[in-house]
Write a structure and sequence with these properties.
The protein has 744 residues and is mainly alpha-helical. Helices cover 50% and strands 6% of the residues. The chain folds into 2 domains: 6-20 and 37-202, no CATH class; 217-356 and 375-388 and 398-412 and 458-630 and 685-730, no CATH class. The radius of gyration is 32 Å and the shape is globular. One of its GO terms (cellular component) is membrane. Its main location: membrane.
Length: 744
């Protein structure tokens, strides 16, 4: 095929016509206007818009449009051979009509050169529209006319008579590469990948196990354990933060961990059958950790000596029950369906992000007691998650899936060697003696290090029972106060907003249509019911959908209800074995803090990922998110630092949670003062208020805001697949038929 500019091709065509003397000049002989008008140049911006419509991935280099002959250079060879010679008519600006004998006829086009695809019957594209497709034989067919579906059975450059040239380029492997066609770069993505709707990269979409699939007995057990091991950091580390500051012993920590495992198993099974029916694990969320720390550090509890742990736990139980009852009312009454109209990605993203960022004052300050343990832990979990995420062992991405439990196991063994080697032995000092009872200044200096770094400090393994079944009211009757109840009511709203974003994202991850507002309300109502169970059993925090579910489904590619239910059953069994909770309670505090640094950062990142559903480049959106996050950090800092005397009593990492008793808000009503100061000292609450107000008052189109699109209530009755995915079991649905607002 001859190459060069359009002008050179036209000149050669004119010269050949003059020499041969037989060339036809259609423009002079025929008195009609040809159906196709040649275009002398291409607008690359239009090419990008066309690419978005058709799925063609291109990267515009910013240079001038490519000439037609330069584009033909990309198809010059086929298996080492040469393409047929193509001549351009000097008047028409396209191939001669009498060249049909020089090329292979692929199919018959319509009159006037319009080609109709045999696959979908659509009118063919213009000659300047490239097509890239992979055939089953592993070859990539590239051309400027073709099938919009990408079947590439008919690909090439067609003239006005419908004839065409097949341009085929072999592809050695399915790997990420770039093929340059003039100024257009064609990306071929790895196996399992596909371009996103906006032209960017979208990860592999194939699931190993779908929502209603049963992979078999052995894979079911494996996937179930895998699912919960990837969530281990979220399920078991919260008691290690809370219980010591509540005055609890190592045995109490083990009991709370076992209770959390039991409740997570029960509530997950309930949600799988009666909630949204999505494969989501329920558990103690970080959303409830900040308000729990605020209540724990109330002034009246600081000097409490007798039964401090039980008293604070009962206070938390009462507050959680009231907040969960409010969440039940929100869901069962249908108010959540109305509230959904006001909850969008621009509200969800900064709120969830603030949940993770709220603990920056606790994370590394607590982990810094043992840098020789915590820095390797952080480095190892990041190496597993980021640098080794693509490595597959026996077909499993072990480093990516088990990043947290694998890194914790390795560093825990390493810390045991340090402890056994005497790295934390100080002459005359005993790590089991409280700091207040230590007389020697040298020992008092090292007591904090020994208690946070040694692996043999905890006596949970020796004191915990082999078998213990968690039961309701195991800490005593809940205590109800107005101040703590108000705090948990508002926090339950934050948890509901968090869950809305998780529901929507997960439904897309498992290739489902989004749930209806009624199904979302049903899920929120059941979360409230599960929160009541958490309050009765005494886990210290409410129960909600874990944000980390999105990450787990993404990395494991397993989204089966049965897998989640089997894993939940294992959690219930493990909760009955007291030594399991005791083993987890023995994790050194600094090691747990370093893992939480990663988990909180992951929570913040997952929150920001909700912006993908909106126009993230919109000035309106980025301003709302930025202002919400900044004020969500700055306003609570004012309340937390209002009375610096707290820093003389509490450790620095607990000062942010002491503002409830010494904040600037004073109304004369102590209960109200405590609640308002506590709420305005929590980052996630302030961030939600600011984002909610701005997003619903600043003008913006639905597309710009990324308004969540939920399925309609009538879709469940008309779409059998949607009905089987979200509808309640038949017997339950008959009993709850009057709850029309729940999508039953």
């Amino acid at each position: 095929m001859e190459t060069g500019s359009n002008l050179e091709s036209l000149n050669r065509g004119v010269a050949k016509s003059v020499r041969g003397g037989t060339g036809k000049r259609h423009g002079a002989v025929e008195g009609r206007v040809e159906p196709f008008v040649p275009r002398s140049e291409h607008n690359p911006r239009e090419l990008r818009s066309w690419a978005k419509r058709t799925g063609f991935v291109s990267d515009y280099s910013g240079e001038a449009g490519t000439s037609g002959s330069e584009k033909f250079e990309a198809f010059e060879r086929k298996g080492g051979g040469s393409s047929p010679k193509i001549e351009i008519d000097p008047v028409l600006g396209r191939t001669r009509p009498d060249r049909g004998n020089e090329i292979e006829q692929l199919s018959h086009g319509g009159r006037g050169g319009a080609m109709r695809s045999e696959n979908n019957g659509s009118v063919g594209r213009r000659e300047d529209e490239p097509v890239v497709a992979l055939n089953p034989g592993g070859e990539r067919k590239v051309g400027f006319r073709g099938n919009e579906n990408g079947n590439a059975n008919v690909v090439g450059n067609r003239d006005a008579n419908g004839h065409g040239v097949s341009a085929v380029a072999p592809v050695p492997e399915e790997k990420e590469e770039e093929e340059v066609l003039g100024d257009v770069k064609v990306n071929v993505y790895p196996e399992g990948g596909e371009p996103a709707a906006n032209g960017g990269w979208q990860g592999p979409s194939g699931l190993k196990c779908g929502l209603k699939e049963n992979p078999g007995f052995v894979p079911l057990i494996y996937y179930g354990l895998q699912h919960y091991l990837s969530l281990a950091g979220s399920l078991v580390l919260i008691p290690l933060v809370m219980v010591p500051y509540m005055g609890g012993t190592d045995k109490d920590t083990a009991t709370v961990i076992s209770t959390m495992l039991f409740l997570s198993g029960i509530t997950t099974i309930l949600h799988s059958f009666f909630g949204t029916r999505l494969p989501l694990v329920q558990g103690s969320s970080f959303v409830y950790l900040a308000p729990a720390l605020v209540i724990i550090n109330a002034q009246e509890y600081r000097n409490l000596t007798e039964h401090k742990f039980r008293h604070i736990m009962r206070e938390l139980q009462g507050a959680i029950i009231v907040g969960s009852i409010f969440q039940c009312i929100l869901g069962f009454s249908g108010l959540m369906s109305i509230l959904l109209r006001l909850i969008n990605p621009i509200v969800v993203a900064p709120t969830v992000t603030a949940v993770g960022l709220a603990f920056f004052s606790y994370g590394f300050p607590q982990a810094g007691a043992c840098p020789e343990i915590t820095i390797p832990q952080l480095a190892l979990v990041l190496i597993f998650t980021l640098y080794l995420r693509g490595i597959s062992i026996f077909g499993r991405h072990l480093f990516r899936i088990y990043a947290v439990p694998l890194s914790v196991t390795i560093i825990w063994i390493y810390a045991s060697f340090l402890t056994a080697g005497g790295a934390y032995n100080y002459k005359g000092c005993n790590p089991n003696i409280p700091s207040s009872n230590i007389l020697l200044d040298a020992c008092r200096k090292h007591a904090y290090t020994m208690q946070h770094c040694r692996t043999d400090v905890s006596n949970a393994l020796s004191t915990a029972a082999y078998v213990r079944i968690p039961y309701p009211l195991q800490w005593g009757m809940p205590i109800f106060h107005f101040r703590t109840s108000i705090i948990m009511v508002i926090v339950s709203l934050v948890a509901s907003v968090d869950s809305v974003g998780t529901y929507h994202t997960t439904s897309l991850q498992v290739n489902l249509r989004p749930p209806t507002p009624g199904v979302v309300s049903r899920g929120i109502a059941l979360e409230g019911f599960c929160g009541i169970l958490a309050g009765l059993w005494g886990s210290g925090t409410g129960s909600t959908t874990l944000t980390e579910n999105m990450h787990t489904i993404d990395i494991t590619k397993v989204a089966s209800r049965k897998v989640v239910e089997v894993g939940a059953a294992f959690l219930i069994v493990f909760s009955f074995i007291g030594k399991v909770g005791a083993l987890l309670a023995s994790i050194p505090l600094s090691l747990a803090a370093s893992v939480l640094c990663f988990m909180w950062a992951l929570t913040a990142a997952l929150g920001l990922s909700n912006l993908q559903y909106s126009q993230s480049a919109s000035f309106r959106n980025i301003t709302i998110v930025g202002v919400s996050l900044f004020l969500g950090m700055s306003i609570p800092a004012y309340f937390q630092q209002y009375q610096p005397e707290s820093s003389l009593i509490l450790p620095s990492y607990l000062v942010p949670y002491a503002a409830a008793s010494s904040g600037p808000f004073h109304s004369g009503i102590k209960q109200l003062d405590f609640a308002i100061n506590a709420l305005l000292s929590m980052n996630m609450v302030v961030t939600l208020l600011v984002a909610f107000l701005l997003d619903n008052t600043v003008p913006g189109s639905k597309q710009e805001r990324g308004v969540y699109t939920w399925s309609r209530a009538g879709d469940i009755a008309t779409d059998p697949s949607l009905q089987s995915e979200y509808s309640l079991p038949k017997k339950v649905a008959r009993c709850c038929c009057w709850f029309k607002c729940l999508g039953v």
